[in-house]
Amino acid sequence: MSTTVQDIIYDARVLLDSYTDDGVVISSDDLADFEASCVIFADMGQKELFEVARIQKTIEISNTPIKNELGNQFDVVEFLGEEQYYPNEDGVVAKSYYFEADKTHTVVIQEYELGTWTDLLTTSATVTTRTSYKGNLTPTTVGNKIRLKFTGTTFYRHVNRALFNVAFETVPDYQAWVEYTLPTDFKSLDKVIEEYPVRQYGNSATYKFEAPNRIYYDYFFNGTIRILYNPIPTKITAKTDVLEIDDIVAKALAFYVASWISPYENQSMTNPLFQKYDELRQKFTMKEPSSEESIFDVYNIW
């Protein structure tokens, strides 16, 4: 059964002896200020306890690297005035393209039709920062070979060039590290697991962070990346709200709320209540068991 803020309010009232002599709970109508304060402190306490309670959410990212018909093209190339072709002056069968350029440039996508290279699509733009360009292609005849031609009259750099023999609803970015934006409730990372098609399983080593809410993974990773993260608990605003921490940890929250209310209700209880809260919080801090590891026998006993 889920714990609500109302449950915490009842527990806090018990801890502060907010009962009549016959044990009947005082009417809520007489405790409006008390309950309003409890809602605020319950929200504060839940956010303090969420890591102890190990509130977790899971994201799964499945990735299969799409073959680039040009080979690996993550290197930065400078355009110095002489036309550049990819792949060289020969072409490949392709249905979509991707590239990035950092300054004013002209890139022509050509097809080989009836023994002649003709322009299929031209991208000419004035930019001052690296910008990506991508899209699907419609050759005059299905199966015509395609090539990229980098040209122009001024210096620029291009990188991450790709021709895919796949038509996409949305052409994916072709970059060495693929960016993934984490949900807005992401607070901290707990674990990243990689699951491979050949049933390998382990902690990930092929990801990196460059911002608090963006993770990057290797373009060539083939499998599923499972991200376990600690979310920011939903803000508590009412007595009927359900707590996101589990019922056991919620007991510590009752002591937390009561300790903050006690200066106004029963000041002598403040220190004992907070000490009990801190004791429970420490008790709930549990570590996961270590993963299996091989032991190197340095003494040749086994």
* Rg, alpha carbons: 30 Å
Please provide the ordered H/E string of secondary-structure elements. HHEEEEEEEEEEEEEEEEHH
Mean pLDDT: 84
Largest sheet: 5 strands, antiparallel
* Shape label: rod-shaped
Strand coverage percent: 25-35%
Number of spatially distinct domains: 3
Stretches where pLDDT is under 50 for at least 5 consecutive residues are 289-294
Q: How large is the count of helical segments?
A: 4
Give the tally of β-strands.
Answer: 16
Helix content: 10-25%
Structural class: alpha+beta
Distance between the termini: 51 Å
Write up this protein.
The protein is α+β, with helices and mostly antiparallel strands. It folds into three domains: 5-55 and 234-283, no CATH class; 57-64 and 176-231; 77-164, Immunoglobulin-like. The protein has helices at residues 5-15, 32-49, 247-265, 270-283, and strands at 57-63, 77-79, 84-86, 92-93, 96-101, 105-113, 116-125, 131-136, 145-151, 156-164, 177-181, 186-195, 201-203, 207-211, 214-218, 223-231. Strands 3, 4, 6, 7 and 9 form a five-stranded antiparallel sheet that branches. It has a four-stranded antiparallel sheet with strand order 1-16-12-13, with no helix packed on it. A four-stranded antiparallel sheet has the order 2-10-5-8, with no helix packed on it. The longest helix is centred in the C-terminal third of the chain and has 19 residues, at 247-265. 25% of the residues are buried. The model is unreliable at 289-294 (pLDDT under 50).
